[in-house]
Amino acid sequence: MVRTVTRLLLLAALLFSAVTFAESQRNNAVIEGSKAADLDACVAPTDFMRRAHFELIEHQRHITVHQGIRKTDNSLAGCVNCHVAKDVHGTFLPVDGANPVTGEQQFCAGCHEYSGVQLDCFSCHTNVPLKAGK
Amino acid sequence: MKKIYYREWGIESPRYWGLLAVLTVILAVAGFAVLHMEHEGHWVTGMNNEVVWGVPHVFAIFLIVAASGALNVAALGSVFGKHIYKSLGRLSGLLAMTLLLSGLLILVLDLGQPSRLIVAMTTYNFKSIFAWNIYLYVGFLVIVAAYLFTMMERKAQRFYKGVGLLAFVWRLILTTGTGSIFGFIVARPGYDAAMLAPMFIIMSFAYGLAIYLLVLMFTFDAEGRALGDKLLGRLKSLLGIFVSAIFYFVLVYHLTNLYGTENHEYEAFILLNGGIYTTLFWVGWVLLGMLVPMAILFHPALGNSRGGIIAASLLVILGGLAAMYVIVIGGQAFPMPIFPDKIILESGFQDGIGGAALYYSPSLPEFLLGIGGVALALGVTLVAVRMLKFLPASLADEVVDPHHG
Amino acid sequence: MSEKIDQNRREFVSVAGKAAAASVVAPGVLLHSIAHAEPRAEPVTDAVRYGLLIDTTKCADGCSDCVSACDKENGLDLLGKPDGATDEDWARQKPRWIRTVKVKDRLSGHVSSLPLMCQHCEHPPCVDVCPTGASFRRADGIVMVDRHTCIGCRYCMMACPYKARSFIHENIKVKLSAVPRGKGCVESCTLCVHRRDYGVAGTACADACEHGAILFGDLNDPNSDITKALQERNHTQLRADLKLNTGVRYRGI
Amino acid sequence: MSFLTVTFAALYYAATVLLVVGLARRIRLYWKTPAPLKIPTTPAPTSTGGVVMRMFREVVFFESLFKSTKWTWLFGWLFHLGLFAVLFRHLRYFQEPVWAPVVWVSPLFKYLAFAMIIGLLGLLARRLFVDRVRYISAPSDFLMLFLLIGIGATGALTTFVTHTDVVAVKSFFRHLMTFNFDTMPNVPTDPLMVAHLGLVVVLMIVFPISKLLHAPGVFFSPTRNQVDNPREQRHIADWARKLEQ
Fold first, then answer.
1. In CATH, what class is B6-400?
2. Which residues of C touch A77 (CB under 8 A)?
3. Kind plus residue range of the DSSP H or E element containing B15
4. Residues B49-89: tens digit of each pLDDT
């Protein structure tokens, strides 16, 4: 009985040891090289942001669309501007995609794909910052 | 009158599963069509920025209208106390539910953002007849389910009359609501008419009954259950009366429209020079959908033959689809009078130059979606009658008719 | 100057930000000139009501500058025909916020050209019929679509007497920050709402009109050019019979 | 690693072993238990294919319950439907990468958590308010209901009211599954999440000794899984065959 269990556990360990890589990366909140990487915290403590970022964005989207309030820390465009990374050529990498060279998933895509939560924002919103005119 | 017994639909398994398999294939094809439309976007359909509702809406509105009509047979039994119809109530309630669900599903799957259905269920604009209709539809399903319960559960029978009356009133409001979706559109001459709501009600009577007749005859015939001529004769006469009533309403609708000069162009479009819409109006709706079925149903020999009744019912349904096409799409194809006293010479957006009709050419996926809806309604109905006791064991004349000699 | 900005923007869009050195000024907005005002911090109020006055007597036949300016401002020019669609289909299915129409009077035969867009009604039928309330009228009179709650039913398009609304029939690849856009939602002229909120003057169409046929302004302000012009001479609403009290008025038709 | 994380890690390993071994032993027992008589409830299918269909209807639609009591069927089926949907969504916590179908249906399936809770409340009401059922209800019947209601309610609250750090939760379980303790994150400490995880551990531990064994058990019920062919083929249990020889 005990032997059977031990064997089963060993087999499982073998099977899964190959896929541990992704797990080790999940505790980084930001993408290296993005503006956010140089800052201590997001617009609210990281632990709060990880749970409630969508509530902030959702509230903001309502007052932006209906009341025209644009002066805010909580806009989606703000998320993109701060968390977007660039590739070696200095080109912005879409926050809902992966780095074509390293395969590293970008800020939004990383967690959303990992946790299987659909990311709808960027079917309408731009996923890279737009440079302002001069 | 003898006591009515109900029994599950018992056709042989291979035949039953074969039927379901055929319907499943149709549903699968429709499913792929929907995925295609959702994945690519609506550009793969014939719908565009001028004609924004197309064939899916024709099917959906037809099914929704027919759903409330299908409930009338039950209402005849409970509200109007006609005993002969009482035994038909269960199937009537079932069809009402399956037809409505399928119609709604078509509408939902045609949305630009079907995944946001939850938004439609949680965010309402109570000035919109559409939002009211969501309540009307959900309420209809709940009430008819309760109605069926009172029919099928002995303990609940004391509520049968009350719930039946509520269901009947609700269905009248529901069809009025469906008709009002168009009736409230003041911008388009084809829709802006109070007549549409009552006309939709009378249309629902006929289309619901035609579908009911076909399903009843098919299920009974397939299993060899007795279906008396006397009962069938009553139902087909009723269908004839309903179709005649539509004819009357159509006549009055166009006559009143013709009286007002402002409607002349629209009337000319539908009755004379609207191309496909004119053809569908005269040939599809008036001739095949009303005149021929009336001739068959009121004919002493044809009207009493089963083949005649089946043909008439099928024609009424086809005519109904043609009617919806003329109303829904024809109403949009007729150019909007943005500049009532001017003729449009050029437009950056096809405003109906020189009064030309706006363009719509239906695509295959749209038809597949609509047909899928019909298949779903039939499929769910067939599964339900096999699992539960919806169908009377016999509808022979001596069973149902209190006055049978 | 405006040409230069425009070129900048085009370049950016085509290469998705290769020229990355410039800093981002206001998150996600396209600034046409350095704004004097801050982004809006307080809710809009009904103290203002934005509107347009279109003088069709000044509108030149064959000119479509307002249309191209609108297309650029709102990213409509970034859309392409889907692979497999015909040109005719695309012409009917692509979104259009403003269009030029040439009409001839049935009695006099007088021909006039005019731009036609969302009329920003005080009592908009599109808002009345929208089941989810996605179609709404902002306090400052701008009629818009909240695309987060738009389910794509197109009932507003059925109800609009001006055919001013468009449905997005295809997948959108490139989007502007200021004008999000996605498949399956309805949209229409917003009176350049992003300009309103970032304190940038004018609308793209009014700015682009060399003939001075389009006047943009605050209808509630007795001293604004548009109010004065409206007081000065006669003007009409399209489909005045519907009593929608439109925010866009026409002169000369 | 926090104390809580270590505790949960140990508990989940222990609970998994108990669940798997306990279930395996139970199933072995069911497998070995002879069915001495041919006792399918009629009308019964006369072919193996028919039996498969019957079991399918029984497992998916709860056919025999439907035929006996409609209310129990309604709430029971609602609960199981909701449970299935919710469990399907939970696959995302264990898979990497997540199956596309799981991602597609997740936004819709999350509302079925309400079906699950409504079903459970209905079943609870049945035990409380139907005299005959209350009389035969044992404390363990209530325990199971309360456990499941607790799990469903805490889960629904984290989905619909206050979110937890789902990435940390998934990472924790992925680390457990792969026996990788180096970078294991701490389990979120919000009370709802702790309660949810704790209740699930309890459920896993009691599962092999509870009435919930009807899940594997339904496949072994002779009245459902036997072919109705006593005349065509003689039915004889293994032990009886040995005696005959």
1. mainly alpha
2. 27-29, 177
3. helix B13-40
4. 999 999 999 999 999 999 999 999 998 888 887 888 888 99
Which of D21, D166, D185 is closest, CB to CB, to A5? D21
Residue from the list B49, B112, B185 with its beta carbon closest to the beta carbon of C93: B49
| Smallest Cα distance from C109 to chain B, Å | 9
Asked whether residue C7 carries a pLDDT value surpassing 50, the answer given is no
Domain ranges of chain A: 22-123
How many angstroms separate the CA atoms of C172 and C194, rounded?
A: 20
Measure CA of the first residue to CA of the last residue in chain D; give whole Å.
63
**Radius of gyration (Cα) for chain A, nearest Å?**
19
Burial of C3 (0-12, 13-18, 19+ CB in 10 A): exposed
Check if the beta carbon of residue B71 is closer than 8 Å to that of residue B93: yes
Put simply, whether B81 touches C (Cβ < 8 Å) is no
Asked if B118 reaches chain D (Cβ–Cβ under 8 Å), the answer is yes
Q: Which two tokens stand for residue B206?
A: 């006929």
Contact: A118, D107; criterion CB under 8 Å: yes
Residue holding tokens 């309760």?
A: B146
Enumerate the domain spans of chain D.
Answer: 3-32+69-216
Cα B228 from Cα B105, distance rounded (Å) = 35
Please tell me which of the candidates C125, C159, C163 has its beta carbon nearest to residue B351.
C163
Convert the pLDDT of each residue in C133-177 to its tens digit.
999 999 999 999 999 999 999 999 999 999 999 999 999 988 898
C41 vs chain A: nearest CA distance in angstroms?
5
Q: Assign domain D3-32+69-216 to its CATH superfamily.
A: Transmembrane di-heme cytochromes, Chain C (1.20.950.20)
Structural tokens at position D124? 């609870």
| Chain C residues near residue B332 by CB distance under 8 angstroms | 158
**Contact residues on chain B for D107, CB-CB shorter than 8 A:** 115
Measuring CA to CA, which residue among C27, C73, C24 is closest to residue C195?
C73
Distance separating the N- and C-terminal Cα atoms of chain A: 75
Contact C177 A77 (CB under 8 A): yes
Interval B279-309: pLDDT, tens:
999 999 999 999 999 999 999 999 999 999 9
Q: Domains in chain C and their CATH numbers? A: 45-251 (3.30.70.20)
Contacts of C173 in chain B (CB under 8 A): none
Confidence of residue B126 (pLDDT cuts 50, 70, 90): confident
Note which residues in 128-147 of chain D have CB less than 8 A from chain A.
Answer: none
User: Are the beta carbons of B186 and C125 separated by less than 8 Å?
Assistant: yes
Residue (of C50, C33, C98, C105) closest to C70 by Cα position: C98
Contacting C residues, span 195-214, partner chain A, CB-CB under 8 Å: 196-198
Measured between CA atoms, how close is D216 to chain B, in angstroms?
A: 26
State whether A80 and C28 contact (CB < 8 Å). Answer: yes
Q: How far apart are CA B262 and CA C241, in angstroms?
A: 12
Q: Where are the domains of chain B?
A: 6-400
Q: From residue D171, give the alpha-carbon distance in Å to each of B366, C4, C78, D18.
A: 44, 50, 41, 23
* Whether B169 contacts B121, CB under 8 Å: no
CB atoms D106 and A118 under 8 Å: yes
Q: How far apart are CA B325 and CA A8, in angstroms?
A: 65
CA distances from A105 to A100, A108, D103 (A): 9, 8, 17
**Measuring CA to CA, how many Å separate B313 from each of B229, B320, C4?**
16, 10, 69
Q: Angle formed by the axes of helices B196-223 and B89-110, to 10°?
A: 120
| Residue B392 DSSP class | E
DSSP C24: P
In Å, the largest CA–CA distance within chain B is: 74
| B115 at interface of D, judged by CB pairs closer than 8 A | yes
- Which of C89, C101, C131 is facing B351, going by the closest CB pair? C101
